[in-house]
Amino acid sequence: MDMKKKEIWIVAGIAAVAIIAILIVNIWKAQNKTTVDAQVSAGTVTSMPTETPKGKWVAVIHGKEAALWFDSGINDTYTVTGDYGKMTIAVQNGKWHVSSVDCPNHNCEQMGWDDGTNMVPITCIPNNIIICTYDVAQNYLESNS
Amino acid sequence: MRIDKTRHFTYLALLSAMAITLNVLETAMIPPLFGVFRIGLANIIALVTLKILGVKDMIIVNIMRVMIGSLLTGRIFGSTFWISCGGVLISTLILFLMEKLHSSLMFTSVMSAIGHSTGQVFVVMLFYMQPLIATILPYFLALSIPTGLATGFVAKIAVERVKPLKKVE
Description:
The complex is a heterodimer.
Chain A: H1 5-42, E1 57-62, E2 65-71, E3 76-81, E4 86-92, E5 95-101, H2 107-110, E6 122-124, E7 129-133, H3 134-144
Antiparallel strand pairs in A: 1-2, 1-7, 3-4, 4-5, 6-7
Helix pairs in contact in A: 1-3
Chain B: H1 2-29, H2 42-52, H3 55-73, H4 79-100, H5 105-127, H6 137-161
Helix pairs in contact in B: 1-2, 1-3, 2-3, 2-5, 2-6, 3-4, 4-5, 5-6
């Protein structure tokens, strides 16, 4: 039942492909960020906040547009309306999480606190909402514009 | 013959119950890695079923685990249900294929974990029209290997202690 030599090579090959793909994705993200930064400076991409935040700028993207921008350095609670119903986001000590949501799954609530370092931003598929940091929002809004 | 049939159904019921329990417990008690990635503890039972009962019963256990697991957590026919279905469908196909190819249990487990992640990502990509989710696939592939090896290792220990009921080819 132990792995055969051929199988070990296949698994190693898949791991290598995954690592190369991760590198490609990160390079693509970095290149895309540079392009979007230039477009933000040129005023092509709108609805991005320009002031310096106390913490980080975080976007609540509904569909293809930013429904709300908030500063993660300011403790507050925000409510937005998605495709399914209302979503409440609580911000505390530079972190944010979904405190309540009108949807059948409540997966976004279970995703817990995010400070922008999570691999995947807080996402609610039934409400079509993504809560992400400035950089991710730039890429997302640009790719959907 | 009759005792064998009774034993077979008892095993099937027990394995289904274990798969459902692991599925529900993992959903309720173990937070996903990096916010989205789950270990897939129920996959251990799918592997054990495949080895001791066979492909047909493994498919039954997988269907039961998704259907009853979703019913118990109140998520049936919701978005997570369809995402789970996509994952289980691909992983079941891979388990079937690996069994036909007489692959080792550890390799089968790794491939099944990869299939599960890939299936879930494809469902989100195609049915929820989120093509950018594809960028997460390499991370899922990389994480599926250690989790697949871990579940495969546990399944191997379990299989070594249970007498198979299926006919060994």
